[in-house]
Design goal:
By secondary structure, the protein is mainly alpha-helical. It contains six helices and two strands. It is 50% helix and 6% strand. The protein has a two-stranded antiparallel sheet with strand order 1-2.
Length: 165
Amino acid sequence: MKQTAVRNLRLCTKDCLCLYVCPTGATDTEDSIIDTTKCTGCGICAAACPGGAISMVPAEYPPQQKKDARVLSASFSLAESKANQEALTARMARETEKDGLYRLMTAMTKSIRLVSEDLLRESGYMLPQSRNTRDLLESLKRNPPPGDFPLKAVERLLELLPCNE
């Protein structure tokens, strides 16, 4: 199975060993995102990364398994609850004048976001090549949320991501 390297920027320690060992220069990019057009999938960069920030992933994901309706319903309820919690902690961070409370609420907001992402991924809504992802992106394109929503990014993702179902 062909693989490609991906970097988790949260884990990257900026040791930059990957720059020196990558035979194609795929890791040497301005935005820190590995150039998948250059990546041969050899895994040398992942093995050299001291922070474990580089992983080898399939170049193409297998079709997503169908989830039971009860599992999906529970996942959606949890995700909605997490979205409400995230909005609440973000609002509390914005409205406080106390530095300690601001930092705590900011950390909680980020933590809740990570749990939400895990829930959505388990529900099949964050697998890049899934039908669920495409349906979600198309829905966001038709009815974008108010405010500073990145509609151009949604349109670009719809162009770039194949549907593997």
